[in-house]
Amino acid sequence: MHTLFRWLTPGMGIKRWLFLSVMGLLTVNGGVIALTYYFVREIRGRSTTWELPTIGIFCVLMGMVLTALGARRLLREVVRVLHPAPPRLLDAFYRQRSKRGPKLVAIGGGTGLATLLRGLKEYSDNITAIVAMADNGGSSGRLREELGVLPPGDIRHCLTALSGEEELMTKLFDYRFKAGTTLLGHSFGNLFLTAMADITGDLEQAIRASSRVLAVRGQVLPATLVPLELVALLEDGTIVRGESQITESKGRIAAVRCEPEEPAALPEAVRAIQEADAIIIGPGSLYTSIAPNLLIPELTDALLSSRAPRLYICNVMTQPGETDDFKVSDHVKALQQLAGPDIVQFVLVNEDLPQRLLEKYEVKGQYPVDYDPETCVGLGVKVLMAPLLDEGDMVRHDPEALSRAIVDWLLRVRRESGAKILPFPVEAELSAKTKGWL
Questions:
Q1: How many of the other CB atoms lie within 10 Å of CB of 141?
Q2: What pTM was computed for the model?
């Protein structure tokens, strides 16, 4: 009773609308009673005045209007308290309940996967990002070493990339502390995910809570809940442990493995692959962002048994200490060595690179990944070329160009194979910038 009376406290702004809704319901009931009385009298052969059904219908309609108006204003007051700057109710319901577009699974890690997701979310709400769990550098590495948690950095990148929330909230998650000693270099999003994992019990639950905060379109899943350490064998026989250490090493990589070996995959990640309409691997560092996912046997088995077309987005530039002198075919061979000859059927390659960027990156020891068509065909893959870069001073994938090329690819696959794939929200003709299979 005490709680009930608190709802009636003056100034709450809900009593008038609650009263209006109740009055509307009573008016509807009065109209229904009048109509019922009229029809019963007619059935029994007792005539009544014509005003009675007219009054009944008027009361029903008026009562419905009053009830709807009161309920609408009451709901608006409640939402305003729970969310000071709420989105339009229709938009919120559409985003949460309407799942548009094909089921797309993107596998990788680092900033490359986040770039892909940022553009892809405009074409489908059914996106699942499966993120590697081997990062041991930067803020994630420090949190992993000090607290023994799973690295949250790549998860955070993907969450903010898929965010449908206001820009301020996304900036908050990406904010990195620039002063102090303990917090220096940490991002707020990493700390938030770490704290939520401790509160909820594991990283998976923390991601779900964060997804609600950021209104994520799709879902982000860790490939595994087992902390992984990536181990690389160089061609000179040197063994390097740790993702960041492998990146810093200068020797050519002969093979990679993870410890512990054969970690268990997250069941939701396996299920997403099995139900996917299309699977996209990359972009990202070949051995330190993509390989950790393919070293999980359950994920690899799910990929190989999936009937969905699988596309690999090849890196634009070589990466010193990791993919020096690599061609497109070398990337494909590395993937096949990790997961089997049928791991991908298609490869997406950037079409060209401005000369001004070539000279800039040559100083750093980085060169374009050359496309060798005959070798690629011999490996059993089809290659699609398209302009994928933004117009800045860095070699970076443009989210819109990348996602448009993927849409073109999937539409082409559907037309050629007749596969039943959920349509994109906007079915457009194939882009004239995208070339056919090479």
A1: 16
A2: 0.76
